[in-house]
Amino acid sequence: MNINIQDIHPLSTDKKKWNAIQTCLKEKISMVNRLTATDIKFIAGVDVAYWEDEGIEWGVCSIIVMDYATKAVIEETNSTGIVVVPYIPGYLAFRELPLVIEAARKLQHAPDLFMFDGNGYLHPRHMGIATHASFFLNKPTIGIAKSYLKIANVEFEMPENRTGSYVEIVINREIYGRVLRTHQDVKPIFVSCGNYIDLPTATTITKELLNSESRLPIPVRLADLATKRNRRRLRDNK
Q: Are 44 and 65 in contact (CB under 8 A)?
């Protein structure tokens, strides 16, 4: 079963249009659950890695699909291409979406939920890659970030040093996401809704996908490892 990609807007490289696109889509974000954890059969992790070769920037996106119950990997898809959009904080989606969509089109198993290595609602305009991509994928998404991009000069508070503890990131009286301690004595991660899911459910699902090997949930960790492996292979075989 191939995933049905929605062509929400052209993948524009025109920076003048980016704010308007984000502002328009922001109004359509839904934090109402389309599913519960018991509804999930397949879950996907998504990551993108980059490298330069003779002055040209390349990127590779890896999507890892796993069985939610057994944690077994059932599919991996990849896409590779020249990256023409530079890294600009707050606009990562315009840089990564072409590769994400290309990799998603190759999927033979339709994930019920996507977890991104990156932010979702935890973004100056609530339009991190996890949120932006959700409109194309038409699936619930969760953002999992390894570091915090400061918003409105608001710092985050550290959660207690125990597994599963968290604190909310509140900016202008609005909850943007959570700082989640996935293991004792290990740096926390930053969890936010992407779309079509609420924050408590996103947190619960994240905690259910942890193991002792990483602070990241399994799908995101496997996608991160896959992008690094594929980047190394592509660089070595140029």
A: yes
CA pseudo-torsion sign 228, 211, 200, 114: positive
- List, for residues 207-225, the tens digit of each pLDDT value: 999 999 999 999 999 999 9
What would the pLDDT profile of 21-53 be if each residue is shown by its tens digit?
999 999 999 999 999 888 999 999 999 999 999
SS3 state of residue 140:
coil
68-83 residue pLDDT tens: 999 999 999 999 999 9
Give the Cα separation of 130 and 120 in Å (integer).
4
Cα separation, 62 vs 235, in Å, equals 16
**Length, in residues, of the chain:** 238
Q: Looking at residue 50, what DSSP letter applies?
A: E
Percent of the chain exceeding pLDDT 90 equals: 88
**How many other C-beta atoms lie within 10 A of the C-beta of residue 52?**
10
Q: Rounded distance, CA 208 to CA 216, Å?
A: 11
Supply φ then ψ for residue 127, to 5 degrees.
-125, 50
The H or E element that residue 234 is part of is: helix 218-236
How much is the pLDDT for 237? Answer: 80
Q: Which residues pair with 50 in a beta bridge?
A: 59
pLDDT at 191 over 70: yes
| Single-letter residue type at 156 | F
DSSP letter, residue 68: T
Q: Which domains does the chain have, with CATH numbers?
A: 33-236 (3.30.2170.10)
Cβ neighbours of residue 42 under 8 Å, at least 6 residues apart?
65, 66, 67, 68, 74, 109, 110, 111, 112
